[in-house]
Amino acid sequence: MRRTFASTLLAMCCLLVGARVCTVRPGGTSITEALAITMECDTIRVLKGTYREGALTVQRPVVLLGEGWPVIDGGGTGEVIVVNASHVTISGFVIRGTRVSDMNDNAAIKCIGVTDIAITGNRILHCFFGIHLSNVARATIADNEVIGDEAVSETRRANGIHLWKCNHVYILRNTAIHHRDGIYLEFVTDSHVDHNTSAYNSRYGLHFMFSHRDSYTHNLFHDNGAGVAVMFTRDVTMTDNRFERNRGASAYGLLLKEINDAHIERNLFTDNTVGLLVDGCNRADIRDNRFEANGWAVRVFANSTAAHYEGNVFTGNTFDMTTNGDLVLSTLQHNYWDRYRGYDLDRDGVGDVPFRPLSVFALVTERMPYAMVLSRSLMVNLLDQSERLIPTLTPATLEDRAPLMRPPTPGTPTTMNTKGRTAP
């Protein structure tokens, strides 16, 4: 079991100030008694066994360290562990037994109004909320498995990892499955969500709102009701993530709604109903992503402005790009489209004629979704071929001025200055 730098540093500091170790074992001192008698920075060492003591409350800085995966069972009475003190570490436990409630956010581990928290290497099973942080600064949530109950309905589920009004939080290498939202952030700033897996959640793999200056990297979101929803946020960085098999009538890999200044790079979108949905997004830099075998690779609403798409790869999608309006204030350049049938006479790797990724049929289905039943018909193919030869219906502004003839090699720059077309 891995220990984070924060928990290791806290343990070292405790040793320097002469902290004691209190050992808890079945039939001996209980965890409740140990929490009552320990002093600040002491370590409570909990040995293998099952502990049913109702809700535990941590009132002073301590290290709660499980050995041999001891089980803390809340017995369905409410919370399991409530942390009301700063500088607390909880590591190495199996935690279960919250109460499902329509009124209270009962959680396996809840931290309220504290700082410098480390929750690492725990297994949280079939709890209402898994890890719940409220008004917390400087926390690390790492290497936890947060597993909900697959058998219960969405109305009886809550979020796996839930943060409200927090800052400087690191969410690292966790697994969150079978919850409502795998990871939920609201009013969370200057934080990082890295190398997590969020899957089989009934609503979103990751859902965050009003959360500024955060980064999300190397995460996997698959088989959720929808992948990731980003709402009412500025300064978003999402790189090297994978959005896979997020399907449904209203499903997407990634939604950007009312976003300013987004950086979306080197992500993989595959087998989603919609790969990327852009709604009311301003100044987005979307580059070097791969869109493979999605229903709609990218849907751009006309209320989005100043987005730039470059170096992206579009292969095997039913629709590469659609929009719901005629005025599209975004730019496309140096992307690879598997439907491009242009030529490259000077063999510099860039097509000599522009490419319009919006087909007539995509335009029709955007306005009349029931027309999808005609998607494989000969009439649709002829209509799209005619539009490519003599474009008249699709927005003239939605075109790639310099399409790539081959997919770019990962890690190579795609900004070019060829054929008189310079990147903005």
Which keywords apply here?
single chain, 424 residues, mainly beta, Pectate Lyase C-like, 2 domains, 13-stranded parallel beta sheet, 4 helices, 9% helix, disordered C terminus
Beta-strand residue percentage: 35-45%
What is the CATH class designation of the largest domain?
Answer: Mainly Beta
Estimate percent helicity.
under 10%
| Biggest sheet record | 13 strands, parallel
Poorly predicted ranges (pLDDT <50, ≥5 residues)? Answer: 415-424
Secondary-structure map with pairings?
Blueprint: H1 5-16, E1 21-24, H2 31-37, E2 42-46, E3 50-51, E4 56-58, E5 62-66, E6 71-73, E7 81-83, E8 88-91, E9 94-96, E10 107-112, E11 115-120, E12 123-125, E13 129-134, E14 137-142, E15 145-147, E16 161-172, E17 175-177, E18 181-189, E19 192-194, E20 197-199, E21 204-209, E22 214-217, E23 220-222, E24 226-239, E25 242-244, E26 254-265, E27 268-270, E28 274-287, E29 290-292, E30 296-300, E31 305-310, E32 313-315, E33 319-323, E34 329-333, E35 336-337, H3 360-367, H4 378-389, E36 417-418, E37 421-422
Parallel strand pairs: 1-2, 2-5, 3-6, 4-7, 5-8, 6-9, 7-10, 8-11, 9-12, 10-13, 11-14, 12-15, 13-16, 14-16, 15-17, 16-18, 16-19, 17-20, 18-21, 19-22, 20-23, 21-24, 22-24, 23-25, 24-26, 25-27, 26-28, 27-29, 28-30, 28-31, 29-32, 30-33, 31-34, 32-35
Antiparallel strand pairs: 36-37
